[in-house]
């Protein structure tokens, strides 16, 4: 191996050798190193060394990645050095795309190194021969650990590692990441029994600092918008000046929109592509191949390319709109150059004046080495139910022994006997309200006390339906000749009729017909709108929010800002108040026959959206005749026919005990959350042998069960899991609760005669999301200018 490094003109980096030392000491290890630092090789170096010194058959190392495509990428990068060194080591991938005959062969004759995903690993553990297959396992390498450790896929992987540790007690656990704010949290997550001292922390060399700039418009920073679309011509000039550029957008809709804007400004007809998760696999692979071959000058992408891209010729990354977090920004910046000793170059394009402050805050955070906090939480119960069923598929189990094993996984270390018993009873018969139905009777306790699967059909169903990612109901977008472009959500498709047009995969498409789950389209040159996608937006991180708050109150910082941003803050200070850090500013003012209340809470769109629902309900109860609300990452604006004189009464913490519970139970949120946990927990199947249920069928089934449980068993395990999801993920209730807890003691109410400068960006949003793009955008810009003129008037 030393000769191979020398032949390449390389030498092992300090952190790569340190990982080798940790392995020789038999310790688990977490490697935190910047993108381009050779993390993958560092993770595999001990494996290659051991297989060179002591060649062996059987499975030696598992490499687990959050993305199927990433595993394929790593295979390519790993196989090359193995072949160049002439080593007799087999490396294979196993994902959902692997052929069934290859999967069967891998269980009988596994390679020495297997690259896989958490879901595929869980399925492997559901087979009776898992004990034989994993008996020789020496190492598991978890790549990009920050991408899934704190979520449900991390829960599943943690449970899988607990099982692997039982099958192979000397198993060594390794995790790799470029962006970790809380190394000790990840060490505890990685370690058996949460024993943090058993995991060595290896830190890579810092590398060259990134070169990040903020692109300022040729005119002035807009009052409203969140995408940076105004800068399309400027961005196009940046693309022209570089070999290859990746443009990151925070949503799939925005990616399609930015692609169209760039294409209009692309006077030189440079090759540009678009890449996001709703496009077909073939479309994504085609674009990825074109990038790898250097055939594209620019690629507009979403989080689908945040991880695992190793295109050395990318020399600039552009973030369209605000970055939302310093960790995410660093991850995206690392796509440029992808070399440790060269600065990665990035440009931020803020969409409005608040987003300029956010972009500046992100730059400062990166310079200070401040990453976004990692929020670990207890393991999800629907994931636990799926894992227990996988264990039962492999062999009968004893309840106490399995519980001990599960508790050795950090997310489930506090799992109590009663909750685990409820999980078992749920798998055994579906729960009190469902136990009359045979199709829910999956487990039975035998005379010796062990639990086993009641019928082989449940084993087959589990393997066919297991998985953590539950997608929204989607319709395929395809041409009449059968060529598929990707998928759009059913909610958006329901708004379409034959003759309507929309942008997708970089094309303007006209709807010909809707045939079952297929949206039949043809290419057109007519104007079109952008598909909308449900789900939560990327939340503004608390650390960036705190920095933006600090900017508002620290006048010394203002000299760093462009003149229009400086004047905006200056006028706000004269006309109203600039909130101090920790203070909740609430402004009220009349405008055109309505009364407005704007709260500057900086808790992110998800929390503000939830709060808007609750506050307008309370306004209704107080006779304030609310007409609606709008939310941004920075502020919430409610408006109605009566003046709000006591905003403190609207922000009291008891809103979470009263209005919140009523709202969630009556809204689609809980049903949507229940659909996901019912699928993950195995209560509802996505597919049967030979056919797959449509999204509508799954939704119909889960809605029926949901209604039954709500009526007859409101304490059901999955209703509890759905509540946990709806509260935490869909409403950001944690940040909401913090806001309401401090509102009473920190609120400053300022009653104004007219709109304030700080209120303009959020007020412009009123009506914005209900109109199509095109000429309506011009009307909204006119409205923004009118509002701004009124607000900035001395």
UniProtKB/TrEMBL annotation:
SUPFAM superfamilies documented for this protein: P-loop containing nucleoside triphosphate hydrolases
GO MF entries: ATP binding; ATP hydrolysis activity; DNA binding; helicase activity; ligase activity
UniProt keywords, alphabetically: ATP-binding, DNA damage, DNA repair, DNA-binding, Helicase, Hydrolase, Isomerase, Ligase, Nucleotide-binding
Domain Helicase ATP-binding positions: 20-190
UniProt-listed CDD domains: SF2_C_LHR
InterPro entries hit by this protein: ATP-dep_Helicase (IPR052511), DEAD/DEAH_box_helicase_dom (IPR011545), DEXH_lig_assoc (IPR026362), Helicase_ATP-bd (IPR014001), Helicase_C-like (IPR001650), Lhr-like (IPR017170), Lhr-like_DEAD/DEAH_assoc (IPR013701), Lhr_WH_dom (IPR045628)
Family annotation (Pfam families): DEAD, DEAD_assoc, Helicase_C, WHD_Lhr
Entry's Gene Ontology BP terms: DNA repair
Ranges for domain Helicase C-terminal: 231-374
Protein family (similarity comment): Belongs to the Lhr helicase family. Lhr-Core subfamily.
NCBIfam families linked: DEXH_lig_assoc
Name of this chain's protein: Ligase-associated DNA damage response DEXH box helicase
